[in-house]
Amino acid sequence: MSNFRSWLEKFIFWxxxxxxxxxxxxxxxxxxxxxxxxxxxxxxVPLSNLLSERWYPNEDLFGLLPLLGGSLVVIxxxxxxxxxxxxxxxxxxxxxxxxxxxxxLKPIVEVLAGIPSVVLGFFGIVILAxxxxxxxxxxxxxxxxxxxxxxxxxxLPTIVSVSEDALYxxxxxxxxxSIALGVTEWQTIWHMTLPAARTxxxxxxxxxxxxxxxxxxxxxxxxxxxxxxxRGISSLFAPVRTMTATIAAEMGEVATGSAHYHVxxxxxxxxxxxxxxxxxxxxxxxxxxxxxxxxxxS
Amino acid sequence: xxxxxxxxxxxxxxxxxxxxxxxxxxxxxxxxxxxxxPIFLIIGVVVIRGFQTLTPEFIFGFPYNGMKSGGIWPAIxxxxxxxxxxxxxxxxxxxxxxxxxxxxxxxNRVTQIIRIAIITLAGIPSVVYGLFGLxxxxxxxKFGTSIIAGALxxxxxxxxxxxxxxxxxxxxxxxxxxxxxxxLGATKWQTIHRIVLPQAQSGxxxxxxxxxxxxxxETAPILFTVAAFYLPQLxxxxxxxxxxxxxxxxxxxxxxxxxxxxxQYGTALVLLILVLGMNLFATVIRSRAxxxxxx
Amino acid sequence: xxxxxxxxLIQNFSxxxxxxxxxxxxxxxxxPANAIMVFFGPAGGGKSSLLRAINRLNDLADVISISxxxxxxxxxxxxxxxxxxxxDVIELRRRVGMVFARPIVLPLTxxxxxxxxxxxxxxxxxxxxxxxxxxxxxxxxxxxxxxxRLDTSATALSGGQQQRLCLARSxxxxxxxxxxxxxxxxxxPISTSKVEATLQDLKQRYTIVLVPQSIxxxxxxxxxxxxxxxxxxxxFAPENALFINPKxxxxxxxxxxxxx
Lengths: 298, 295, 260
Description:
CATH topology of the largest domain in chain A: MetI-like fold
CATH class of the largest domain in chain A: Mainly Alpha
Oligomer: heterotrimer
Number of strands of chain B: 2
CATH superfamily of the largest domain in chain B: MetI-like
Radius of gyration of chain A: 24 Å
């Protein structure tokens, strides 16, 4: 009995342990796979081609700059829209709203996180793009701006909920002390609470932006998919094409093992590395904070 | 809300300060509404324009006439198969990994690396998962574009959600229960199996449903791994291709010219009902479990 | 049957936690059978650590080093070194029960809490389980209060009842030794005296090691008392000797309330 018990215990422990380690395994597998399929691009396509300004795979033109630029425009647009709105919404929910309003607002923002990006993209095509075309008098509404607006919507739930947590974690005594000194609540929020929560809020913004980098379907559907290098603010009102959309649109039709196929994987590697960097920086902030908390507790 | 302050306002400068504060709070309220209103707008538009399409023929029928007529049954069934397949692969590994992290893992470098790996997995763009799934499952392992290739891809993408929510659920179970159980002669696994897991199960279930909700709505990972543009019959084995709701919505709103709007909105509505329904289900489980909790 | 005089022998026992808190230095002590042994002293002195060392509950904590021996006698007078690698820890914990400061009832019914340790052992017979439930509830002076609601949630009981339930639960296994870590710290005076009376009864059959909640309780309960300070055993004496006529100045200061 005791023998069987310890044998079973060991078996379960190893099964659980291997599952625990699986995350490492999958990350390595994904990265190696991307490398294996993506690196041959460097031998098949000359660097000057990859760094050129034309993306036109039918004629073996694999300039990545327009795609990078397209992603950049859409992401910057989304950031400019989502970060201030997200932080203000979080401040309202955490600091200003009465409890009943908080109980309503929080789940609604969570619903936004649950809407599939393909539904956002659909909404973008049927409502948002035609509206932008009419309102701004553009030749087409399928523009970087439409993409930015939808990306802002996908990143808002992350920014709001993570910022909110950061604001909550500022001790109430800070606020009371500030109010007791005769400072208004309004000033307390901007001069005390928000600065005290700044690392958390910054993490929230980074995680939100991380989501916009990887977003695929919504941008694929509404940005018009024209691979041109963006120049200046006017490109916000013109069609662009992002890295994610390029993979999604072209991978299905490409011949396995062709130069085009390898370059698409190369774009995948780029995306992997960008999101990895963003998430690691955000995570290191979280880890550092946790260690500090543990030191105080022990 | 700042009524108490209002009462104590005597000097003129404090009156103007109060005015600034009130204007500021109103502005914040406006911005918060700006976040919320589009959500209602999106859902409202889809519901109002889509619900007339939701007839039994639409839900249970097959598409015909170049998908411009008929229903979306194969896409609904395909998505259900994909969700079940994803659950089959990701739930056991994800929950076991969460048990490892919360109950067994020592505080050391390796554990830190596991956590970083989970964060990394959570951040990888969905379309990159699609690339990986295409390369590993479809091409190298020769599953072809199939339900199993898509479900495995979605399962890996899903792991971080299931691991982190399950771990959180496990960690809320008080440590004292574990010590007590051990002191009564329980082994570690008996303690987990008989005390910790039953107490954490609704939290774990909530996390699992939220993860599967995301899998149900994802398009990019299934683009090259399972999704069929149009299939005249339902899939018969895990190695068959299948249609899927999100991909179907993508196809009929971008690839098919002259698509009737009703079918587009109807498809979007069915997808929304499925996904938000799962979300609601998870919320209900969570709040009921909280109300029932004894500690 | 051999009459066992000393149930537990602690010899040169030292223990260190990784964070440096509440370590133990070279403790040597005999714990007599069928009596109440009281460990007392200021917080952080090592009482609880030594208590947890006796059923190896400190295996769960972050212990970096252990030396010396703790020997547990069986009914034939054979001693087992509980830190021996070959010892079945699970079996040990069934012989040495533990009750904690806060009453920790498991999120089960009253009956579920009681049968839990026996079920873990593999006992499935309903009659045997029920007999044990009644016996241990009677021993813990709780039977009359809960006999009609065994299948209701244990968390609905009052604090005093919960603590006696925890005591009853550790009696389910009929352990040889019961370790109690401030078992009355959260209880009102009436519940406290009930628990104390129960312990006085129980010592006929069991060896009891108690970390009391106060010096007064220590004096009331002790058949033997040991005074701990900063991880060291300062003094050890039978009955009330330590409280009436301590030999060591530090014990005297503590008992008279000069510190702690």
